[in-house]
Amino acid sequence: MSGIEGKVVAITGASSGIGEATALLLAERGAKIVLGARRPERLEALAARIEKAGGEAAWARTDVTRREDLSGLVDLARDRYGKLDVLVSNAGVGLISRLDDVRVEDWEEMIDVNLKGVLYGIAAALPVFREQGFGHFVNTVSTAGLRIVPLQSVYAGTKNAVRTISEGLRQEAGDSLRVTVVSPGAVRTDFAERMDPAVKDQIDKMMEVALSPDAVARAIAFAIEQPDGVDVGDIVVRPTAQG
Question: What angle do CA 231, 237, 240 make, to 5 degrees?
């Protein structure tokens, strides 16, 4: 029996990219998956795909900017499967631009999704983990927070805020909870779809060397499958060609 089999894992941003790949991999390894994202038709199709392959999955439309949606996702896990072992806070947006463009609405959306969305997940899951006496937070951040470059100031700021909060949470968690931060580099997803066309061209060029979402999913699985008492705190996953 693997360290993943039988675990109940809730994933935000599960309808595509890293979230979808993580759901498929963990389900294949025996986890029971609770899918959350804003596109219900994608969630329903993914759950059906998991079940067709012999896995178990539940889903709920989840907008991480709504605290009640995160509470509902955690409640779904407990109602359907009796517990929650892992919360993967993966939902994120990267509306990168020059600060001179003063795209305040984009800044606010990144703060709401990338930062507050993770905090709402912690608020929903932490009391449950304390009550159970076990639990694991896995927060997807970014290498953008490790190497600060132009255009990504606010995006990197939100990711570094999550990194800081995660470290504080790890230190407060005690010996019964685990906290992991996963920092992907360039990954082939729809990350650039809503960016300014000039910026999108730069990101599209970077995608030529980007990782498959499966590579990040394997890193997340590695952290989850560790024995009790082993906390994998920080994983960086990026293409060898990325500077």
Answer: 145
Structure tokens at 1: 């029996």
Is residue 27 within 8 Å of residue 56, measured between CB atoms? yes
Q: Is residue 186 within 8 Å of residue 239, measured between CB atoms?
A: yes
Active site residue 81: no
Q: Single out the catalytic residue among 155, 184, 185, 191.
A: 155
Q: Any idea what DSSP says for residue 90?
A: -
CA 51 to centroid of chain Cα atoms:
22
Please list the residues that pair with 89 across neighbouring strands: 139
Kind and range of the H or E run holding 8: strand 8-12
Nearest C-alpha neighbor of 188 from the set 199, 202, 167, 204: 204
Residue environment code for 108-142, b if the CB has 16+ CB neighbours within 10 A, otherwise e: ebbbbbbbbbbbbbbebbbebbeebeebbbbbbbb
Indicate the pTM of the whole model.
0.93
Rg (CA), the chain: 17
What does each of the 243 residues of the chain score in pLDDT, given as a tens digit?
A: 479 999 999 999 999 999 999 999 999 999 999 999 999 999 999 999 999 999 999 999 999 999 999 999 999 999 999 999 999 999 999 998 899 999 999 999 999 999 999 999 999 999 999 999 999 999 999 998 888 888 999 999 999 999 999 999 999 999 999 999 999 998 987 665 666 666 666 666 667 788 999 999 999 999 999 998 899 999 999 998 776
Q: Biggest alpha carbon distance in the chain?
A: 54
Question: Is 100 exposed, middle or buried (CB count within 10 Å of its CB: 0-12, 13-18, 19+)?
Answer: exposed
